[in-house]
């Protein structure tokens, strides 16, 4: 067969992910803070993009910045404000003057406003820094300080030594005995018990410093921590010939010790959530309002774009590209807010009983339900509900919270898994500590209260998701 070249036309359809489309999809799944940062970054990079003035004062300030000779602004009459630094005005205003009498004699001082924000705050102390500061104040020789630095570099977040002492000695180029001696010194620093290799050693160091040398108490900590954790008190009472009241006294003594001495230095700053959607109740109706605070309105400076376009072909093409980019960003932001509003409205319609009565009335719902309701794809609903929060009459919840699986009920209807979890949490919070509810009993109580058919293993799964211990660990014999 002879080889030959041919040309033919073929018509196909394919989806091309343009940069603009990728940007629109990315904006959907950004959180509120990430969206604000993205807008601020675009404002820095795009010279034709500006923030819409929020008040008339800002518009007047823009007018004042223009050239007075410009004919477009000659008709605008802006009265010049009276100078407040005039001595008569200062006498009239008194303490409310912008230049008070007390400040007139302090012109030579460095103003506080000139300092950076970080310069006014004290640095947060870390566990490593706190221990290192104590070691520098001690009279340890240089070799011991070098060993201590190796130990500090191998502490975990709560202050435990996470490497064997042999490895520490190898890294510090010293003997195991020298590393052991330095470790014992460091375990007596503040907080006491830090640098311990396990829980028993941490508690024993604290007991030694506090003078707690009772043989039974020492034996409890050294050899019977597992029994104490599993609340096996009766075998311990029989072995040591103790009453339950004496066991309780020993437990109270152990509970006063700190099992994680370095945890106080590892506390994270609180994270505050700003809701994207507010749901307000007015009578029997619920109104959805988007939170647009800190999200600036955008506009294109047409005058600047025209002025820059006359400086040549290259400048004109650059400005045209930036104008198209600005238009697409504004369109994408509008589409994002519109999609978020439609999804929030759909959630309110599906979960109306939740907004009226609380979490126990949360209905099962999946992404497909909302997607069909607002005529959008499930992937769009999934993206717009990621990292978004709704302020409801019952608290702030992530939008993903309202999507939960279904559990069958006796009457043929379905209940949401989140409402079942809320009921499990309520039942356990009201139980008798001496007779905690088992998973099987909770399953029977749920059938009576909610009419839901739920297996014992499902109750156990939900209980573990709520970080609640089993009935044996919740039981208290005192």
Question: Can you describe this structure in just a few lines?
Answer:
With 478 residues, this protein is of the alpha+beta class.
Main sheet properties:
4 strands, mixed
Which percent range fits the helix content? Answer: 40-55%
How many strand elements?
8
CATH superfamily of the domain at 128-265: RNA polymerase sigma-54 factor, core-binding domain
Mean pLDDT: 80
Strand arrangement, major sheet: 3-2-5-6
Key structural traits:
alpha+beta; Arc Repressor Mutant, subunit A; two-stranded antiparallel ribbon
Secondary structure: elements and pairs:
Blueprint: H1 19-29, H2 32-45, E1 49-51, H3 56-65, H4 87-93, H5 101-104, H6 127-137, H7 142-152, H8 165-172, H9 176-187, H10 199-210, H11 215-223, H12 225-229, H13 233-240, H14 244-255, E2 277-282, E3 285-290, E4 298-300, H15 302-309, H16 313-350, H17 352-357, H18 367-374, H19 378-384, E5 389-392, E6 395-398, E7 406-408, E8 414-416, H20 417-429, H21 439-449, H22 456-465, H23 471-474
Parallel strand pairs: 2-5
Antiparallel strand pairs: 1-4, 2-3, 5-6, 7-8
């Amino acid at each position: 067969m002879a080889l030959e070249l041919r040309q033919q036309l073929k018509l196909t359809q394919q989806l091309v992910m343009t940069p603009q489309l990728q940007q629109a999809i990315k904006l959907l799944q950004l959180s509120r803070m990430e969206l604000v940062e993205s807008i601020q970054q675009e404002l820095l990079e795009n010279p034709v993009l500006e923030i819409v003035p929020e008040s008339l004062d800002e518009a007047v300030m823009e007018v004042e910045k223009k050239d007075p000779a410009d004919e477009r602004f000659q008709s605008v009459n802006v009265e010049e404000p009276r100078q407040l630094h005039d001595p008569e005005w200062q006498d009239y205003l008194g303490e409310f003057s912008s230049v008070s009498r007390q400040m007139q004699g302090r012109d030579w001082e460095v103003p506080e406003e000139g300092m950076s924000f970080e310069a006014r705050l004290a640095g947060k102390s870390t566990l490593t820094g706190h221990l290192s500061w104590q070691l520098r104040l001690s009279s340890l020789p240089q070799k011991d300080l070098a060993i201590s630095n190796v130990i500090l570099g191998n502490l975990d977040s709560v202050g435990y030594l996470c490497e064997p002492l042999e490895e520490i000695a190898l890294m510090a180029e010293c003997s195991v005995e020298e590393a052991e001696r330095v470790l014992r010194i460091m375990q007596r620093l503040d907080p006491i018990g830090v640098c311990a290799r396990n829980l028993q050693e941490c508690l024993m160091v604290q007991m030694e410093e506090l003078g707690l040398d009772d043989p039974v108490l020492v034996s409890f900590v050294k050899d019977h921590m597992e029994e104490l954790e599993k609340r096996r008190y009766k075998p311990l009472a029989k072995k040591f010939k103790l009453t339950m009241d004496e066991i309780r006294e020993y437990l109270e003594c152990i509970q006063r010790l700190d099992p994680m001495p370095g945890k106080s230095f590892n506390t994270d700053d609180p994270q505050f959530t700003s809701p994207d959607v507010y749901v307000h109740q007015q009578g029997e109706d619920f109104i959805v309002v988007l939170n647009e605070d800190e999200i600036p309105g955008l506009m294109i400076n047409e005058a600047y774009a025209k002025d820059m376009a006359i400086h040549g072909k290259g400048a004109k093409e650059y400005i045209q590209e930036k104008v198209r980019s600005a238009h697409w960003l504004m369109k994408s932001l509008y589409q994002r807010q519109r999609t978020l509003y439609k999804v929030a409205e759909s959630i309110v319609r599906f979960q109306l009983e939740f907004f009226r009565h609380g979490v126990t009335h949360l209905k099962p719902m999946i992404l497909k339900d909302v997607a069909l309701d607002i005529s959008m794809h499930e992937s769009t609903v999934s993206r717009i509900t990621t990292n978004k929060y709704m302020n409801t009459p019952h608290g702030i919840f992530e939008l993903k919270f309202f999507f939960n699986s279904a559990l069958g009920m006796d009457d043929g209807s379905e209940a949401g898994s989140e409402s079942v979890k809320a009921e499990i949490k309520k039942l356990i919070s009201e139980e008798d500590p001496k007779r905690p509810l088992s998973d099987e009993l909770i399953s029977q109580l749920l059938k009576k209260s909610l009419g839901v058919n739920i297996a014992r293993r499902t109750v156990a799964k939900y209980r573990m998701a709520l970080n609640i211990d089993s009935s044996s660990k919740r039981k208290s014999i005192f």
